[in-house]
Amino acid sequence: MAAEMATAVDVGMSVEAIKASQMGMKALGAGVAVGLTGVGTGVAEMGIGSAAVGAVAENKDMFGLALLFTVIPETIVIFGLVVGLLILFL
Amino acid sequence: MLKPRQMSHLFITGSKNQMEPVIQELYCQNVFHIEEFVEQTMEGYEGVKIGTPLPGASEASSKLIRIRSIENTFGVKLEDVEPQKRVPVQQLRETIDTKLSAIVSEVEQIQAKKSKCEAAVKDLEQKINELKPFAAVPIPLEMYSGYQNIAVFTGRISKNPDLTVPNETYFSHAKEGNFIAVFAPAEHSEKVQLGLLQANFVAVPVPRGEGLPQDLLNLYTEQIAVHKKEVALIQEHLEAMKKEQIEFLAASEELLSADVEKAEAPLRFATTKEAFLAEGWVPIDRVDAVRDALVNATGGKITVTVLPTDLDHDAVPVEYNNPSFVKPMQVLIDVFNRPRYSEIDPTLTVSIVFPIFFGLIVGDVGYGLILLAMAFGLRKFFKGEEGQQLLAVLRNASISTIIFGLLYSEFLGFPIPGLKPTMPSRHLMAESAAEGGAAAGHGPMIPELMVMSIWIGILHITLGRIFGMINHARQDHGEHRIKAVLANFGWLAVMWGILIAIWSIAALPLMPDLTGLPAVVSVVNLAGVVGAVLIVIGVVFIARDSVLEVVEIPTIISHVLSYARIVAVGLSSVAIAMVVNFIAIGMFIEPQLKNFSTFSIFIIIAGLIIFLSGHALNTALAILGGGLHSIRLHYVEFFTKFYKGGGKKYMPFGMKRRFTEN
Question: Staple B305 to which of B11, B18, B405, B568, CB 3.0 to 4.6 Å?
Fold first, then answer.
């Protein structure tokens, strides 16, 4: 117990400061989760999207299927968002 | 509901001279989907060929082409014309020839006049372009030529040249290029040429004509104005004519295209030397009516047979059979693919679940009202059937948005005063009770919302798998049928097995708590064992149908978790609304109202602009996010469990008349 106290004093932070810093870390983590998954979705949709636009230009009936394929990677960023929300609010 | 309209396979045979009355009658009935005959070399098909068009086909189509070319000149399309009153066919047939040729010759004359004027304008513009450089030189055009001893050079040049021989030069400096006109004795012309070339001279020919170039320019400009006025007059004349004749043209086009379609129908029939055979599909409830009408029309000289339907080999045309509140959703099912005849038509479930998903995602009374107003306001601007259907989908979705907005207690991101949210709250900022927030005390209830969305996912996917079992039971045969149905059951067993196993380990909000059950094997309790057994059974059933499918088992988790987007996208919409409110009201309007001064008015107006544009943006995002994600959950997570699609659209032979009547 004494040792723990000593550590806290050594770092020079009050309990409030530690809590605030933890909150900041959580916010950073949530930001990284959403941001990186967003980039991942973007990279994945880039290829699919351009091919889908090409296919739809050739044949309009492909639209439904093309849209379907294009939005499949969106799940990645949704997962990111879910993880971000869980980090922030749980 | 859940099943497309039931069809009967009809086979009409008769002698060739009965073909015309049969075609007339079928066209009138507008229910017979013609199965096109393809010539075959197989045994039993000897002497059977596709038919030849009825007489009058080519005449009618040439008239049709003329009508369409006139409509093209007027710039109208048949779909855009609003029918005023219907023209009797008989009357139209009597007048069509004379009236049509009169209109054609008049339009042709007007067109000729118009193109003449337009050509004249182009010609004059060309002349003006040629003249322009000479306008800077104050010499009449005729003075540039007709000399014996003087050579004339005109053209563009980079700088005023230093000529060593006697000459008279006009140099003009201009942005688009310097212009020079040099008059020199003919014997020095070579030297002049050399001097000019050193200054990058490019000759410009002298345009024909007489008088000062500036005067000519003015004259030409005036002439262009006159011609343009004339073109405008002609255009006005055409507009007047269009207004006067559009009804007649639309009615004639409808009549003639019906004639052409009827006359060309034999091209889709099979014929022998003396007889014809027409094969097609008719909704079961109309079979007797069609048969009686055909027999009446031909005096009983044809036979109509109902063939048995072979679901495996016949491409039965598919017509939706839905109650009217479901119909608008058909357009979104067609975007994906029309259902096959033998599979479940999911339109009913989609039309119930889609608005619920949309409402769960957007869930705001304010946005719901805006979208509802849009769905009604845009009706005038979307003329086509598809547009109207999409607006009806939006209308249903916005009503559901209002209902869920009340349940979430949200109005443009604000909590509704005095209304406690019935559903788990989505308000991001925990408001203190002093501020009067209805959701006072806590921020968003993320765990509850998450579990709610996962429940929705599990139930939706379970429904999809049950549909899958029904489809396989209907479509497949023999051993494969049992395996395919059991595989679908296997997927369900694995999903529920995982779920029960999780319940046995952890207590989650809104889910049954099975952690308290007695332990059976070490730490695993009864529910855990049940879950494990279900998973094993499921994997075995899946593997029995196709071993490779076992690799896909993790998609169970990713598909169920994918429904978390209902919460995630919804929360982001709430967050944007709250940020807009905070910037507009908290940062701009409220502080100014506290210390009001004249300057405050501008800041308050700026705050209002931010408020309006922010919520406009969020409304657009709500349509995109709410609509796209809801329909995607259907297309990707729901349809992949049972739906194949690829049915042939039912296109009855006939036409819905808009401009003509019998």
Answer: B11
Q: From edge to edge, which strands make up the β-sheet containing B168-172?
A: B168-172, B178-185, B150-157, B202-203
Which letter, b or e, does each residue of B432-463 get, where b requires 16 or more Cβ atoms within 10 Å of its Cβ?
A: eeeeebbbbeeebbbbbbbbbbbebbbebbeb
The residue among B201, B208, B211 whose CA lies nearest residue B177 is B201
φ/ψ (deg, to 5) at B162: -100, 95
Report B:449-508 residues touching A (Cβ under 8 A). 450
Q: How many domains, chain B?
A: 2
Same domain, B607 and B589: yes
- Compute the residue count for chain A: 90
Q: Which residue does chain A place closest to B336, by CA atoms?
A: A64
Cβ B446–A79 below 8 Å, yes or no? no
| Residue B314 burial (C-beta neighbours within 10 Å; 0-12, 13-18, 19+) | middle
Q: Is residue B168 part of a domain?
A: no
Q: pLDDT digits over B360-372, tens only? A: 999 999 999 999 9
Give this complex's ipTM. Answer: 0.73
What kind and span of H or E run contains B561?
A: helix B554-562
The boundaries of the domain holding residue B416 are 327-444+564-641
Residues of A in contact with B443 (CB under 8 A): 89
Same domain, B431 and B580: yes
* pTM of the predicted protein model: 0.79
Contact B558 A75 (CB under 8 A): yes
Residue B596: partners with Cβ closer than 8 Å, 6 or more residues away = none
Q: Does B621 map to a domain?
A: yes
CA-based torsion, B97, B98, B101, B102: positive or negative: negative
Same domain, yes or no: B517 and B571? no
Phi and psi at B437, nearest 5°, equal -70, 140
Q: Give the minimum alpha-carbon distance from B335 to chain A in angstroms, rounded to a whole number.
A: 5
**Mean pLDDT confidence for B28-40:** 88
Give phi and psi for B430, each to the nearest 5: -70, 120
Summarize pLDDT for B525-567 with one digit per residue, the tens: 889 999 999 999 999 999 999 999 999 998 898 899 889 889 8
Same domain (yes/no): B529, B541: yes
| Residue B437 sits in the same domain as residue B347 | yes
B494, part of any domain: yes
Place of tokens 């987007």: B565
